[in-house]
Amino acid sequence: MEVDLRRHRRTLLNSDSMFGFMSARFVACKKQNTNRVLMGGFRFPVAAGDRVLLLLLVVLAVAMVDSVSGIGANWGTQASHPLPPETVVRMLRENGIQKVKLFDADYGALRALGKSGIEVMVGIPNDMLQSLASSMKAAERWVSKNVSTHITGSNVNISYVAVGNEPFLQTYNGTFLRTTFPALQNIQSALIKAGLGNKVKVTVPLNADVYESASGNPSGGDFRADIHDFMIQIVKFLNENGAPFTVNIYPFISLYTDSNFPVEYAFFDGNASPINDGGTNYYNMFDANLDTLVWALQKNGFANMPIIVGEIGWPTDGDRNANLVYAQRFNQGFMAHISGGKGTPMRPGPIDVYLFSLIDEDEKSIDPGNFERHWGIFFLDGQPKYQLNLGTTNSSYLAPARNVQYLEKKWCVMKPSAGLDDPQVALSVSYACALADCTSLGYQTSCGNLDAKGNISYAFNSYFQKNNQLDRACKFPNLSMITKTDPTIGSCRYGIMIQQYYGGAGRIQKGWGVVAGVSLFLLTIF
Question: What are the TM regions of this chain, as residue ranges (predicted)?
């Protein structure tokens, strides 16, 4: 399958200091589209020792009651078996999520958002920047097809066009430095020509690595020296057109990449040792990071420029720090932190935020880490992972996706008679994990306590579910069998696939392409 480069990297400020937010060292995380398994219906129990903490967070959440308005969510579509767009839109509305950010102009998603009233930020992938930068006609065609048509024909509330996604990441080695601004200009001109210049604003979602602080404090913030001129060019253009600065901030990545990062500083409980910046205390990384951007804008003459936090969140699996307890603690703490419009020391007032992300995506690259497929506040089947009060409804719980259709309750597991010393075991597991999803297997992950046979069964079942439970997808030679007995062990659930959604011919072809590859492999290798 061709690799999808639409949104394949994310970085976050990382530090060699104890506070971990201002160092010039950053860690890039790639997001690529590869075939991975969707496992619906996972449920992970919370350890008894964490229940007191969760109870306290619930109490705080109840106190919010509608104090947060206009919360947004990132809706990614890199999934092998996505929920029908209409199901996702209904879920958005029932959870009071009033804004959604898309990473491309997915037709099905945009059509489903019609007449919903949900505000939409539609994205342009980085691999399109060159063509849009070099051709005004290309920009006009893109706006006509992906913005004008949906606004006039389907009544989609498109308010923003995101031109590229983190195009100035250091790991891109300048690939998009000279195409981002011309593409931005052309899209803006095309919007004006289409009569949408006042309704739809352009923006460029940027990673927090575009700014830094030589002093290690927020007040030392400025744009990175190697891209300073490019940044000022873009910021000036956005400011002149009444458009916002969009930034993605990820405390989890700093914790993941730096063993010395102070854990408490990633959260909002006020337990961390504060940073004192000229008399202003910072008790969490988010406030310090965002205010570094505010200082950078102020120093360059854009003190009042509006800011959107385009992505912020916490994954739930695939790493020892990616778990339900930390994710619930972070997201609920963040919602409580921004409730009431307090803002940050340098930017008081409501914060415009899009949570990352809405639903897990099983086809994202695991290059940066196994956690990449587990950022959602909902599992892949649209079921909530944990209790979370967004402050947008009268409920302290997330509303699940409705009428989700699952496949039959059957699993592919290792035969009891199969031996671990069989020479086909290693090859079979390697193949299954390459085309399915074994990201829940590993040290201190949700399935990290399985024995060898449990790991093998998990891999086989992931592959089996990915391929819609076809009998021939459980034909690992003399190793596998189909069972109707749930092999779940402790906190590790062996998932059941949701039924395939066929949104168009492209998806049908994709599904059969996987099946054809399965058959060929089993015939030629085994």
Answer: 52-75
* Domain parsing of the chain, residue ranges: 9-38+55-373, 411-524
In this prediction the pTM is: 0.85
> In which band, very low, low, confident or very high, does the pLDDT at 340 lie, cut at 50, 70 and 90?
confident
Positions annotated as catalytic residues are: 166, 311
CB atoms within 10 A of CB 225: 10
CA–CA distance, 230 with 205 (Å, rounded to integer): 14
The token pair at 276 is 């004192």
Q: At what angle do helices 452-466 and 424-435 cross, to 10 degrees?
A: 50
Residue 7's φ and ψ, nearest 5 degrees, are -155, 70
**CATH tag for 411-524 (out of 1.20.58, 3.40.1000, 3.90.550, 1.50.10):** 1.20.58
Q: Is 223 helix (H, G, I), strand (E, B) or coil?
A: strand
- Higher-pLDDT residue of 299 and 39 is 299
Per-residue pLDDT of 151-206, as tens digits, reads 999 999 999 999 999 999 988 999 999 999 999 999 999 999 999 999 999 999 99
